[in-house]
Amino acid sequence: MTTLAPPPAPSVPEGRHRAAVPAASRRLRRMFTGAPEDPRWARPALWAILVLATALYAWNLSSVTGNTFYDAAVWSGTRSWKAFFFGALDSGSFITVDKPPFALWVMGLSARLLGYGTWQLMLPMVAVGTGSVALLYRMVKRDFGAVAATMAGLALTLTPITVAITRDTNPDPVLVFLMLLGAAALMKAVRTGRLMPLVWSAVAIGFAFNTKMMQAYVVLPVFFLVYLWAAQVGLGRRIRNLAVATVALVISSAWWMVIVDLIPASSRPYIGGSTDNTVWDLVIGYNGFGRIFGASSSVGSQGNGASFGGDAGLYRLFNSIMGGQISWLIPFAIVALIGGLVLRGRAPRTDAKRATLMLWGGWFVLHYLTFALAEGTFHPYYVTAMAPGVAALAGIGGVVLHKAFQEGTAAKWAWVLPAAIAVSTVWAVVLLQRVSGSGTPYTVAEVVTGVAGAVAVIGLLLGRFTKRQRLTGIAALAAVVALLAGPAAYSMSAATSSTNGTNPTAGPSTGGMGGGGGMGGGQRPSGTGGPGGTSSSTSGSKSTGQPPSGSASSGSGASTGSSTTESGSKAGGGMGGESQVSSAMISYLKKNQDGATWLVAVATDQTASSIILESGQPVISMGGWSGSDNAMTLAKLKSLVKSGKLHYIVVSSSGQGSSNSEISTWVKKHGTAVSAYSGLYRLDASDVG
C-alpha cells in the first residue's frame, strides 16, 4: 500500500511572516507588562498612575471653568485663520492675547476638528498633563529604576497646583510638557554624545517659548551646564554641538515673533501687553523683565507688581497661599538633592546618574528662585513648572537615600532618610493645620500624615538596628503615605470642585484670590451651545459650532472684570471704570450690528472675552488685559466708525490715561447715547468730521 506524504507547508519568504505575529504579540504584551528585566509590578503601577492622572485632570469636565480670556481667543481662532495665527482675542483680529499662540493653536485645532466646547478645549490639556507624568516616569526610570520612577510619577500626579492648572485653559500644561520633551532629548544627547537629540531639545524649548515666552528659558542654564559637563564627547565637540543647538533654539523661538513684527501694524492685530505694538517688547517687557522686576523696572513695567501668591521673598512658596499648592515635598527634595550629589561625588564626569541629579536639581533651584523672588505679576499656578523637578528629586531621593540607609556606608547616613521623612511629615502637618476646619478630607489627611510619618521614622530605625528588612519595607511604604496624603487631599479637592478660571488653585481658600473664588475675568462657559444650541460639554455630543451662551458668568469674581449674564449684571470695566454690559444689551447690539465687523468696543480683554463667548461675535478690547494698552487711538476709532466696521462703544464717566480720556470725550460729544444701557454709545460715519 502506498502511503501518501503530507503536502508541504507553504513557504514563508525569509521567515518574516512567521515571526511577525509573535513579535507583535510580544510588543503588545510588553506594553502592559513591561520589559523582562523590570519588576512585575512596575508596568501595572505605571498604568495605574496614568489612569489616576487622567481621572484627576478629566473628572467632571462639565464643571471646568477655564480662563475666558484664552477660551475667547480659541473661539476666535476657529472663526478666522488670521486670528488663529496671531492669537487674536477677537475674530476681527483687533488685538492679540498677551502670550504667543502655540497653546491656543493646540486647543484651536482640537476645537476645529471636534467642535467648540468644554471637553474639546480640555482634551489637549488632559493629554499633555498625563503625557508629562509618563515622560517624567520614563526619564527617572532610565537611570534610577522603577521604584524611583513610580514615586516620581505619583508625586507629579498628586501635585495640587498641577491638578488645578491642568483642569484649566491656561497655557502652562503645554509649557511643562514641552520643557519635559526638551529635557528628555537633552539627556539622550548627554548619554550618546550625538548632535541631533540636542537640537531637538532646543526645538522643544523654542516651542515652549512660543507658549509662554521667557518662562520657557528658566531651565536653559542647567540644560547648558549638564550637557557641557556630562556629555559623552570631548570638550571641543560639546562646545560645537551647543553652538549648533543654540542656533536651533533661536530659530525655533523667534520665527513667529520675527514674522509678526515684520508685518505692517496696519495689517495685523495690536500686540496685547506690549508698549510699542511689537512682540519683541512683549518678550523683554511684560513677559520678561516685567515679571521679575515688576513696576520698578525700566522695562516691562506693565507687570504692575501684582502678586496673587504673596510677597516676594525666599519664603514665598511656603506661605499660607502657596504652601499647600507646591511645598509639600520641597524639604525632602532639598535633602535628596544634597545627599544624592554627595553620594555621587567621586563618579566619572560622564556619570549619567549625577547628570540626572544635576538636571532635576537645577530645574528645581532655578524655578524656586525665579518664582520666590519675582516682584512682577505672579500667579500661584506658575509654579506647576517647578513640579517635575520636585517630583523627580523626591522619587530619586527616596531610592538613593534608602539604599545609603540600608548599606550604612557611613554612620551619618543612618539618620538622613529618617530625618528627611520626619521634617517633611512635620511640614505637611503644619500645612494641614493651616486649613483645619476646612473639611473632613483635610482632617483625615492630617491624622494619616502624622501617624504614617511616625510609623515610617520609627520603623526605619528599628528595621535598621534589628536587621529586619521586612520592617524597613513597611516603613518605606508608610513614608510614601505620609508624604503624599496631604497633596492627595488637595488634589482631590481640585478635581471635584469648581476653581477660578483666571487664577486656579487647589484646596480650601487661603486668601490668595484662587480656589473657588478670587480674581474674576469670567469662568469657563458650560452652558448651552449658543442661542438655541445644545451644550457639547454636558451632552458629550459634537459642538454645534456656537460658543456656549452664559459664558460671561463668573460665580466668584469680586474684582473689575467679573461678570454674569443676568440682565443688568456686570461684564467688566468701561473706559476707566466698571460699566453695565448685560445679556439684554448684547441682544440689542446683535440686532443693531448693521453689518459692522465688531459688535462693540469695550475697555478690557476681560469684558471683551465674556461678550465674545456669549455673542459669538468679534468684540474690540481697546486697552488689553489691564486697560492700559494703547491699542485704540482716536484716529483708529474714527477710521473704524467711518468705514462702518464699528458702531457701538462702551465708555464710563471717567477716562483712564490720556488716549482713553480723549476717546471717551470724543465719543460722548459725537456719539448718540443709548438711553436703555448706561455707557453705551452709537456712532455712524456721519458722526466723524
UniProtKB/TrEMBL annotation:
It is found in: Cell membrane. Keywords: Cell membrane, Glycosyltransferase, Membrane, Transferase, Transmembrane, Transmembrane helix. Residues 1-11 have a biased composition (Pro residues). Residues 98-256 form the Glycosyltransferase RgtA/B/C/D-like domain. GO terms for biological process: lipopolysaccharide biosynthetic process; response to iron(III) ion. The chain crosses the membrane at residues 41-59, 80-97, 117-137, 144-167, 217-235, 242-260, 326-343, 355-374, 380-401, 413-432, 444-462, 474-492. Residues 1-20, 494-578 are annotated as: Disordered. Residues 585-670 form the Putative mannosyltransferase YkcA/B-like C-terminal domain. The keyword Glycosyltransferase applies. The keyword Hydrolase does not apply. InterPro entries: LipidA_mod_glycosyltrf_83, RgtA/B/C-like, YkcA/B-like_C. This is Integral membrane protein. One of its GO terms (cellular component) is plasma membrane. Residues 509-533 have a biased composition (Gly residues). Pfam families: PMT_2, YkcB_C. Its main location: membrane. GO terms for molecular function: pentosyltransferase activity. It comes from the Bacteria. Residues 534-569 have a biased composition (Low complexity). It is a multi-pass membrane protein.
